[in-house]
Amino acid sequence: MLTVAVLISGTGSNLRALLEAARHPDFPARIIVVGADREADGLAHAEEFGIPSFTVPWHEHESREAWGEELARQLDVWKPDLIVLSGLMRLLPPTLVARYSPRLINTHPAYLPEFPGAHGVRDALAAGVSETGASVIVVDDGVDTGPILAQERVPVLADDTEHSLHERIKPVERRLLIDVVRGIATGDLALTPSS
Fold first, then answer.
1. 31, 79, 137, 140 — which has fewest CB within 10 A?
2. Could you give the CA distance from residue 80 to residue 78 in angstroms, rounded to a whole number?
3. How confident is the model at residue 51 (pLDDT cuts 50, 70, 90)?
4. Which amino acids are annotated catalytic?
5. How sure is the predictor about 78, in pLDDT bands with cuts at 50, 70 and 90?
6. Per-residue pLDDT at 70 exceeds 90
7. 87 is in an annotated binding site
8. Other Cβ atoms within 10 Å of 166 Cβ, number
9. Could you tell me if 96 and 122 are in contact, meaning their C-beta atoms sit under 8 angstroms apart?
C-alpha cells in the first residue's frame, strides 16, 4: 500500500477528491497525513476523514530554507512513499526537493510547458489560446518544469472568465491526480527522476 502525504495552502479540493478515492478498499494508496503552510480551510477535510495533520506556517520562519527544514522534519515523522503538492502555493527549497525527489508530485492548471507559474489560468486567457489543460508533474527545482506524468487538454470557451475556466479545469486535475497516484501505487506509472 502506497502511503501519501498531501501538502496544501487553501481549500483542498484536490485533497478531498484524493481522500474520497482512497476511502475505497480497492484503491492502492492511503493518505497518512496532511500538511499546510498556514491555517488552511482544507485541513477540515483531513479532520473529517480522520487523517492527522500539521501546519508549518511560512511566516514563522526566517527563510524559505528554514521553513523547508521544518517541513522536512514533519514529513520525516510519517515517512510517506509519495508527497503530493495539492495547491501548496509555496516554492519548495532545493534542499527539500533533493531530499524527496522524485517522490514529489504536483498538479498544475495548464497544459505544461504552457503557462507555468501561479497564474496559469489567467495567463492562458490573456494569451487568447483556444485550449489549455491540466498537468501532473514530478517536482524539480524549477517552476512547473519537472517531468510530466499525465496531462489533458481543456477547451477555452469564448465567454470564459478566469473563474469559469478554472472550475472546468479542476475536475480534470482531480481525475488526473487520482489516476497518477493509482498508477504509481500499482507500479503502472514510474516516477521519472529529476534531471
1. 79
2. 6
3. very high
4. 108
5. very high
6. yes
7. no
8. 19
9. no
- Given a contact cutoff of 8 angstroms between Cβ atoms, the answer to whether 165 and 125 are in contact is yes
Domain boundaries, the chain: 1-100, 106-137+149-195
Neighbouring CB atoms inside 10 A of 113's CB total: 12
Check whether 12 is labelled as a binding-site residue: yes
3 state DSSP class of 185: helix
Q: Is 91 annotated as a binding residue?
A: yes
Instruction: Give the other-Cβ count within 10 Å of 195's Cβ.
Output: 7
d(CA 172, CA 189): 18
Q: Is the peptide bond before 57 cis (omega within 30 degrees of 0)?
A: no
**Annotated binding residue at 92?**
yes
The one-letter amino acid code at 136 reads V
The phi, psi pair for 50, rounded to 5°, reads 70, 30
What size, in residues, is the chain? Answer: 195
Helix (H) or strand (E) holding 174: helix 162-186
- 94 vs 195: which has the higher pLDDT: 94
Fold of 106-137+149-195: Rossmann fold (3.40.50)
Fold for 1-100, please state it: Rossmann fold (3.40.50)
pLDDT at residue 192, rounded to an integer: 64
Nearest to 34 by CA among 89, 93, 96, 80: 80
